[in-house]
Amino acid sequence: MTPAVLGIDAGTTAVKAVLYSLEGETLAAGHRSVAVVRTADGGAESDIDLVWEAVVGAVRQALSQARSAGPDVVAVGVTGQGDGAWLVDAEGRPVRPAALWLDGRGADRVTAWQHDGRDAAVVSATGSASFPGTLPVLLDVFADTEPDVLARAAHHLNCKDAVRQRLTGEIATDPSEASRTYLDPATLAYSDDMIDALGHRRFAHLLAPVRAPHERGGALTASAADELGLRAGVPVAVGLVDSAACPVGLGALSDQDGWVVLGTTATVAVNRVDRAAADSGIGILIPTGRGTQVLEALSSMVGTPNLDWARDTLGLSDRGWSELERLARTAPDGSGGVVYLPYGSPSGERAPFVDAAASASWVGTTVATTPAQLLRSVFEGLAFSVAECLDLLDAGDRVPVCGGGARSDLMCQLLADVSQRTIVRTADPEVGARGAATLAVVAAGLAPDLEAAVRVFPVGSVEFAPRASPALSAARDVFARVRAALRPEWPALRALARTAANADGVGAPTPDESLIAAERVDAAAPAAHLDATVVDVPAPERTPA
Questions:
Q1: What is the mean pLDDT of residues 413-429?
Q2: Do residues 242 and 332 share a domain?
Q3: Residue 285 pairs with which residues in a beta bridge?
């Protein structure tokens, strides 16, 4: 049988499972969708049991595709979406659905923390600002709204940690995940000062032990192996959150290496030698598990879902993305004077600025504006936003990109032109799974360290060189001025939406990040995928399970 490494990437709306040979060749891949439930009170949740079912289905699909190669899985790596609250009891059973990173129930609480000094305590400890989908904010919310449910929780396990617990039965996390809770990236220990400043000592028992990401985080139990169709006893790596696993999959390990992930969020990050070297002021700091190194990330709340929303809004849902990209190319640079602000999250925005009231909009339209101009303006708006993040982080002249949106030639070329950087698109679309598998190679003792493992798993690329475009430069300037002019009115627009929702007795219609996660894209759909299931339900009445 052919030795193989399994990489699992549990994203917001889809789970991917990829089998690699020990030389880094992709042998097979599986995919399963995961439903995201939107509630009228701003919640965004997934059923943890259904996430596990998606993992099982994706792994079995990959194994079925690779049967002719006779794969013998010798190591397993897991990554997944970050933040949120994944609460389980002492036996590892969910006490409630997982509240996801895009949950907006704590938006008002974040605003209050920013005024009363608690957010300053979060920034002081973690280097990252609060936002509604982080664990401390969600625990604060649930303490008020679901105290009985919270009392039954024994552990918080981030998404990939919850999956690994199902695989191995072990409770653990890594510095990248823990830094999004209460961990100080400088000391790699949970911050007592932050816990006490928030009044969260009562939640400290929920925090998992922190271990190095490339360590062995247990082995497949007999029951998990039986469900997956694998051998019991296969080592499983501790792993990293997806935003930290992607650069491993890209081979970006050195200080000052930067990259972009164009997916559900548009994330821009640069490795820093330590916390002190990260100075954007609004970035998320995530320890990589490699000494003092941290990645400084600017991660927007919505990336490619802007494109999906625009496609649906323009009545083009029946067209594939190859056709839509050709349509967008018929409009000139600058989109005929139309500007799009890509801030479509119901939870506001966190990069390249932080504003819980941020809203998306088209500006500059007339009755003569064409669908091609509107569509192209969305591509350009995303490129402008990502370029701002690249500038804020002082990223280098060559930037690797990955994610569903990176499959679009137009998106990559616009980003090169707007940022005046060479954009390097990786050949492997599943760099999160590749990064997880790379860590598993080390955990299983198949490579002495991560640098050696990256050399085992090389990945090809295509380059997009920057071109001069006065029209794009002018449009970028207008983009920034339009945003500055509209920003004072964003809170009032949010208030109007809440008023309308209260009058109707239902949640206000909003663009949903989880509709198109850009985590699985077929060849004809370079910018996004349509496999997510999103259900709007009333705000739940919680009762003990």
A1: 94
A2: no
A3: 296
**pLDDT class of 534 with cuts at 50, 70, 90:** very low
Q: How far is CA 81 from CA 12, 127, 287, 387, in A?
A: 6, 20, 16, 23
Using one digit for the tens of pLDDT, what is the confidence trace for 38-47?
Answer: 988 889 999 9
Confidence of residue 468 (pLDDT cuts 50, 70, 90): very high
CA angle (378, 379, 382) in 5-degree steps: 85
Enclosing H/E stretch for 223? helix 222-228
Tally of structural domains, the chain: 3
- pLDDT at residue 540 in the model: 39
- What's the CA gap between 300 and 386, in Å, rounded? 9
Torsion of CA 361, 366, 369, 373, to 10 degrees: -30
Q: Which residues pair with 19 in a beta bridge?
A: 6, 28
- The Cα 209–Cα 178 span in angstroms is 9
Q: Please report whether residue 398 resides in a domain.
A: yes
Residues 6+ apart with CB under 8 A from 116: none
pLDDT tens for 271-319 read 999 998 987 777 789 999 999 999 999 988 889 999 999 999 999 999 9
The structure's pTM equals 0.81
Which residue is listed with tokens 């997944």? 80
Residues 107 and 216 grouped into a single domain:
yes
Structure tokens at 199: 């009044």
Query: Which residues lie across from 290 on neighbouring strands?
Result: none
Looking at residue 97, the DSSP 8-state letter turns out to be: P
Asked if residues 252 and 264 have their Cβ atoms less than 8 Å apart, the reply is no
Segments forming the whole domain that contains residue 472: 305-424+465-522
Q: Which two tokens stand for residue 441?
A: 């190679």
Same structural domain for residues 24 and 55?
yes
Record the tokens describing residue 349, joined without a space.
């925005």
- Whether 268 shows a pLDDT value over 50: the answer reads yes
DSSP state of 507: P
Residue 45: strand pairing partners: 37, 99
Rounded Cα distance between 498 and 218, Å, is 47
Residue type for 131, please?
F
What's the pLDDT score for residue 505? 58
Amino acid, res. 67: R
| Alpha-carbon dihedral sign for residues 95, 97, 98, 104 | negative
Summarised one tens digit per residue, pLDDT across range 225-238 is 999 999 999 999 99
Amino acid residing at 18: V
In a domain, 454, yes or no: no
Residue-averaged pLDDT of the chain: 89
**14-21/2-10 β-pairing:** antiparallel
The token pair at 59 is 């792994």
Q: Does pLDDT of 528 surpass 80?
A: no
Residue-wise over 511-522: b if at least 16 C-beta within 10 A, else e? bbbbbbbbbbbe
Alpha helix ranges (H) inside 406-469: 409-419, 431-443, 450-456
The mean pLDDT value for 195-212 works out to 97
Which of 496, 528, 499, 491 shows the shortest CA–CA distance to 512? 528
Residue 265 is predicted with a pLDDT of: 84
Please indicate, yes or no, if residue 119 is contained in any of the structural domains.
yes
